[in-house]
């Protein structure tokens, strides 16, 4: 598909969005920055945008193959993906299989503890407020989306969790938690934005921690991409 960048229309923590010569499509350009802890810590390494774009493309394709609609269309360069233009819903759906991060601080849970069942949390997507945790009553009161849309988001988040955990278990990776965003495309909800180590905790099943080697920040991304290619391509 012949699409080219026209105008920059959005810039987030880890990517830029460009309009194209097709009004229905955007180009998501992944940068070599990785933002952590609500954007308070920046991690940079050369090639990070390439790794994230490839990982996101592979995982979004897996969702599509399991009849979970996404905004992904195709890869167009090493760090650029062609995506459908979506009206984004300002809610992050966080899926947790293990206690980690802010959940432990809020609830006093032991880090690394496997949860009896997956937990879905909602965060209001607002950087100035550090993406606070909200519940369905906040969602409806703030008119962030309709009740039936939130129901679909929860359903698709749970299905996505099953696809990811099953896939990653084949390559020795534990899905501790991950964040999903959703958007409307022609009135239909789709998984949008990305799924990558940028927005997920993927742990080595042998250590139950992120993949690490000699302080190399790229190691985690390289390992996950190499292993995914073996089962996805």
How are the SSEs placed, and which strands pair?
Layout: E1 8-11, E2 15-19, E3 25-30, E4 33-36, E5 41-44, H1 48-65, E6 72-77, E7 80-84, E8 87-98, H2 102-107, E9 114-124, E10 133-134, H3 136-141, H4 147-169, E11 173-185, E12 188-192, E13 200-204, E14 209-210, H5 219-232
Antiparallel strand pairs: 1-2, 2-3, 3-7, 4-5, 6-7, 8-9, 8-11, 9-10, 11-12, 11-13, 13-14
Helix pairs in contact: 1-5
CATH class of the largest domain: Alpha Beta
The SS-based structural class is alpha+beta
Tally the helices.
Answer: 5
Strand content: 35-45%
Q: For the report, how would you describe the main beta sheet? A: 7 strands, antiparallel
Helix fraction bin: 25-40%
Order of helices and strands: EEEEEHEEEHEEHHEEEEH
* CA distance, first residue to last residue: 21 Å
CATH architecture of the largest domain: 2-Layer Sandwich
Tell me the radius of gyration: 17 Å
Give a quick rundown of the structure.
The chain has helices at 48-65, 102-107, 136-141, 147-169, 219-232, and strands spanning 8-11, 15-19, 25-30, 33-36, 41-44, 72-77, 80-84, 87-98, 114-124, 133-134, 173-185, 188-192, 200-204, 209-210.
Summarize the structure in words:
This protein has 233 residues and is α+β, with helices and mostly antiparallel strands. It has 2 domains: 8-84, 2-Layer Sandwich (Phosphorylase Kinase, domain 1), CATH 3.30.200.20; 87-217, ATP-grasp fold, B domain (D-amino Acid Aminotransferase, Chain A, domain 1, 2-Layer Sandwich). The chain contains 5 helices and 14 strands. The chain has helices spanning 48-65, 102-107, 136-141, 147-169, 219-232; strands at residues 8-11, 15-19, 25-30, 33-36, 41-44, 72-77, 80-84, 87-98, 114-124, 133-134, 173-185, 188-192, 200-204, 209-210. The strands form 3 sheets. Strands 8, 9, 10, 11, 12, 13 and 14 form a 7-stranded antiparallel sheet that branches. A 5-stranded antiparallel sheet has the order 1-2-3-7-6, with helices on one face. It has a two-stranded antiparallel sheet with strand order 4-5. The radius of gyration is 17 Å and the shape is globular. 33% of the residues are buried.
């Amino acid at each position: 598909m012949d699409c080219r960048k026209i105008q920059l229309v959005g810039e987030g923590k880890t990517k830029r969005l460009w309009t194209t010569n097709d009004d229905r499509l955007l180009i998501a350009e992944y940068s070599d920055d990785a933002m952590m802890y609500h954007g308070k810590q920046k991690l940079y390494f050369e090639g990070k945008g390439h790794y994230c774009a490839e990982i996101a493309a592979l995982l979004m394709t897996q969702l599509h193959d399991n009849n979970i609609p996404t905004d992904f269309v195709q890869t167009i360069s090493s760090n650029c993906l062609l995506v459908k233009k979506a009206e984004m819903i300002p809610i992050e759906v966080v899926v947790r299989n293990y206690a980690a991060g802010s959940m432990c601080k809020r609830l006093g849970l032991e880090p690394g503890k496997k949860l009896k069942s997956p937990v879905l949390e909602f965060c209001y997507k607002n950087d100035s407020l550090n993406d606070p945790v909200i519940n369905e009553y906040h969602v409806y009161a703030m008119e962030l989306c309709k009740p039936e849309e939130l129901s679909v988001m929860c359903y698709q988040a749970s299905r996505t969790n099953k696809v990811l955990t099953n896939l990653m278990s084949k390559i020795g990776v534990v899905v501790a938690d991950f964040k999903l965003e959703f958007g409307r495309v022609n009135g239909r909800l789709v998984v949008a934005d990305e799924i990558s180590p940028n927005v997920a905790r993927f742990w080595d099943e042998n250590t139950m921690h992120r993949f690490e080697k000699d302080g190399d920040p790229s190691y985690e991304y390289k390992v996950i991409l190499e292993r995914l290619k073996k089962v996805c391509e």
